[in-house]
Amino acid sequence: MPTTQRSYARYVALGDSFTEGMCDDLLPDGNYRGWADRVAAALAEEREGDEGRAGAGEREGDGFRYANLAVRGKLIGQIHDEQLATAVGMGADLVTLAGGLNDVLRPGCDIDRVERLLGHCAAELRATGATVVLFTSTDPTRRMAGSTRILPAILRMKAFVQELGQQDGFAVVDLFSAPCFDDRRLWAEDRLHLSPEGHRRVAAGVLEALGRPVDFDWRAPLPAAAPPGRAERLRADARWLRTHLGPWIGRRLTGRSSGDGRPPKRAELLPYR
Fold first, then answer.
1. Which residues are in the SGNH hydrolase-type esterase domain (predicted)?
2. Which of 15, 60, 107, 220 has an alpha carbon within 20 to 30 A of 194's alpha carbon?
């Protein structure tokens, strides 16, 4: 169920490339910005305003802290085994948890196991007293040919997440039902990760789920644009096959992941500013 608005001082993000921020704007340190960083920036600004209004004598002096444990390519079992205990130990009052889609994309996905591990992560994080934000996946069938095979698993995960979201202390950002994500302009060239505009809209969805006002309708479709011509589409498809799909298939065949050997994006709960 939607949470009542509360102030947050410590935010931890768990997940895969979606939460790492893949294909958003690059930061000076070489990391992608991503929707979680955008949420952290908004909450840090809010926290600074709250502390300023409270007066110097009432300030906690800790400011707003943020950690992002996400690593691209991670499966839900890896998120459970490599990120959950660290997140629980950080004592956050806000957690975002997204995972399982990388599992669903693979043939032979054990959806029962995905739900069990995602549910355990959610329960453990909520047991700390944190508000836990979950996500439904977007609907890939409305923009990607050949994705209908995974729709039953995505719909099952959607129902599972929405059921969790009915419990106290949980909030759900429903990306599946947002028509804007049918538009390829919200997606990067690889067609799997969000563009900067996509990350901006997810951040707005999270803030809205937390009871914060947003200054635009993040679900609304983008303004109409002329569709690309046939030649342009063919060139884009050929580039995608060569640059993105081919390497992705190669990693699956060899058991490798794009996140192998990568550290978490922001491994410590540090002051955001």
1. 13-201
2. 107
Q: What is the pLDDT of residue 244?
A: 52
Determine the 3-state secondary structure of 22 from DSSP: coil
Read off the DSSP letter of residue 113.
H
Write out the two tokens for 20.
């790492």
Q: Is 266 exposed, middle or buried (0-12, 13-18, 19+ CB in 10 A)?
A: buried
Q: Which helix (H) or strand (E) holds 98?
A: none
225-231 CB contacts, 8 Å cutoff, 24+ apart: 225/185
**What confidence tens digit (pLDDT) does each residue in 155-207 have?**
999 999 999 999 999 999 999 999 999 998 999 888 789 999 999 999 999 99
Burial 66-84 (b: 16+ CB within 10 A, else e): bbbbbbbbbbbebbbeebb
Token pair 């890896």: residue: 78
Angle (CA) 254 255 258, round 5°: 100
What is the C-alpha separation between 259 and 240, in angstroms, rounded? 20
Residue type, 52: G
- How many CB atoms neighbour CB 223 within 10 A? 6
- Confidence (pLDDT) at 104: 93
Alpha helices in 174-245 (DSSP H): 196-209, 230-240
The mean per-residue pLDDT over the stretch 218-226 comes to 85
The CA distance from 273 to 213, in Å, is 22
Tokens found for residue 35 = 């929707």
Alpha helix ranges (H) inside 90-240: 101-104, 111-127, 151-164, 196-209, 230-240
